[in-house]
Design a protein that fits this description.
The complex is a heterodimer of chains A (169) and B (291). Chain A is α+β, with helices and mostly antiparallel strands and 169 residues long. Chain A has helices at 24-30, 86-93, 103-120, 134-140, 152-168; strands spanning 2-9, 12-19, 49-52, 55-58, 71-73. Chain A is globular, with a radius of gyration of 16 Å. The longest helix of chain B has 22 residues, at 265-286. Chain B starts with 5 loop residues before the first strand and ends in a 5-residue tail after the last helix. Classes of the chains: A alpha+beta (169), B alpha+beta (291). The structure holds flavin-adenine dinucleotide and FE2/S2 (inorganic) cluster (2 copies).
Chain lengths: 169, 291
């Protein structure tokens, strides 16, 4: 049940051969993009989070054919010429990466979160000024499980991401 | 890979109806957050799929100037929440929708899928019941409309024929205007958990007396359930702490929570009474009542 689909993958137009029965996670991984991880395979852990048209979804419970005509972002596209994205740098600096299995999914979720904040604040996104507190951050990341960090450093990383992102802009 | 034997993409409601009629035994897939889990678990009955994900005809939300609200079955919870919040509508439904899964799940999961899977725990069910929502069904044989309350048939079952598709949910102006409403989901975790008990209330007051109270529970009976007898009894009563205590003590008469590994019957009964108090109180306060 193979099909060829066209989409934009990390900024480049691509054609992917996918099986109708495949999840987007399986399709991406078999295409060599092994950054997105399978933690649970049933939508519980968020390790497989990718952005479809800038919206974070669990790629393990998304059919691959849904990527047709869409813009897909995965962790592989976030660093540019070896330079980490503000969110990636924030995760490193906050010590929010231990075993790292949850990290690609978390980074994608945080990325869409802070880009969304920046948009709704008219291009500026500052912690405090738009009233983001640690509870909001936790609620926004409730679909991502991490077995190592205990989440404090993840929340720190998201706060740092907001700072770095607004500093960069 | 998911064990899918047959897959058809529908590009319109009409085509979806046609595909369902042509391929008996097929199931619709919308967000897929239930269907794909079942397929992965190896459950039978989902091998032949008709895909209605993101159909334009099913993803509209309209709120007419007179207050009629129509929500397409394919609207995701994220969109529903944003729409209702920005118009300050149906707080209980916003709360119900916000308690579903986590953000990634809400970005995919649809209102139609949440009701059509028939789960006694569906978090949009109690809010839809207290707003007297109606569901529109379509097939090649025609259209019909039924109250969501009557659409539920049993645990995991709804009155949906094999060739039918749910197209939209409608809520009349008088069911949500000048109304205070609240939903609370009691679960073991703050997110990503199935409700132990869910409770929604919608209340209209006149001179601090109950003009109407609608109260509904999930996981408290084989199907999401309204407390009709109690609702009748409180009409016209002045709002007071005593009334709330009476409601909490009466509420179990119409419900039949069960034992499961998630929670015992006794514990569920306790939560049901506690939520009757909290949720009705909050709905009354939101309706402008004094307690
Ligand atoms: C990790 C995770 C967490 C979850 N948490 C919650 C939660 O907290 N609360 C909760 O209530 N649910 C929860 N769910 C369950 C599920 O996400 C919801 O029930 C969701 O609303 C289903 O919608 P869907 O569009 O994904 O349905 P699908 O999987 O596409 O379909 C579900 C069922 O409805 C039928 N169907 C879908 N659309 C139609 C239609 N238009 N007409 C007729 N039949 C139709 C399908 O044939 C299928 O039987 C969770 C699921 C996951 C994976
Ligand atoms: S692997 Fe997709 S949510 Fe866990
Ligand atoms: S760092 Fe190990 S799971 Fe999060």
């Amino acid at each position: 049940m193979k099909q060829i689909i066209q989409c934009q993958l990390n900024g480049k137009p691509v054609e992917l051969v996918v099986d109708v029965r495949q999840s987007l996670l399986e399709a991406l991984r078999s295409h060599g993009l092994t950054g997105c991880k399978e933690g649970c395979g049933v939508g519980e852990c968020g390790a497989c989070t990718v952005l479809i048209d800038e919206v974070p979804v669990d790629s393990c419970i998304t059919l691959a054919i849904r990527a047709e005509g869409r813009v897909i972002r995965t962790i592989e596209g976030e660093s540019i010429n070896g330079e980490l994205s503000p969110v990636q740098q924030a995760y490193v600096d906050a010590g929010a990466v231990q075993c790292g299995f949850c990290t690609p999914g978390l980074v994608m979720k945080t990325t869409s979160y802070i880009e969304g904040l920046a948009q709704s604040a008219g291009g500026c996104c500052q912690s405090g000024s738009n009233g983001i507190n640690r509870d909001d951050i936790r609620r926004e990341h409730a679909g991502n499980l991490c077995r190592c960090t205990g989440y404090q450093t993840v929340v720190d990383a998201v706060e740092k991401s907001i700072q770095y992102y607004s500093g960069q802009k | 890979m998911f064990p899918i034997d047959q897959y058809h993409r529908a590009n319109s409601i009409e085509q979806a109806c046609h595909l369902l009629a042509e391929n008996p035994g097929s199931k619709l897939i919308a967000g897929g957050t239930d269907v794909l889990i079942r397929l992965r678990e190896g459950k039978s009955g989902f091998g032949s799929l008709v895909d209605i994900h993101d159909l334009d005809e099913l993803t509209g939300i309209t709120h007419t100037p007179d207050g009629m609200l129509q929500v397409g079955s394919g609207v995701t919870f994220t969109r529903l929440i944003n729409f209702l919040k920005s118009d300050g509508l149906l707080p209980a439904l916003v709360e119900g929708a916000s308690s579903i899964g986590g953000p990634q799940v809400r970005n995919m999961a649809t209102l139609g899928g949440n009701i059509c899977n028939g789960a006694p725990s569906g978090d949009s069910a109690a809010p839809l019941l207290v707003f007297d929502a109606r569901v529109t069904l379509q097939s090649q044989r025609g259209k019909r409309e039924v109250p969501v309350e009557e659409f539920y048939a049993g645990p995991g079952k709804v009155h949906l024929e094999e060739d039918e598709i749910v197209t939209q949910f409608s809520i009349n102006p008088e069911s949500h205007q000048n109304t205070g409403s609240h939903f609370y989901k009691y679960a073991m975790r703050k997110a990503m958990d199935i409700a132990t008990i869910g409770c929604a209330a919608a209340c209209k007051l006149e001179d601090n007396r109950i003009e109407s109270l609608r109260l509904a529970y999930t996981v408290a009976a084989p199907v999401p359930k309204r407390c009709r007898v109690l609702e009748e009894q409180v009409i016209g009563q002045p709002v007071s702490r005593k009334l709330i205590a009476d409601i909490a003590s009466m509420v179990l008469e119409e419900l039949s929570p069960r034992n499961s590994w998630r929670a015992s019957k006794d514990f569920r009964e306790h939560i049901i009474r506690t939520l009757a108090d909290r949720v009705v109180s909050e709905a009354i306060i939101r309706a402008g009542g004094q307690l």
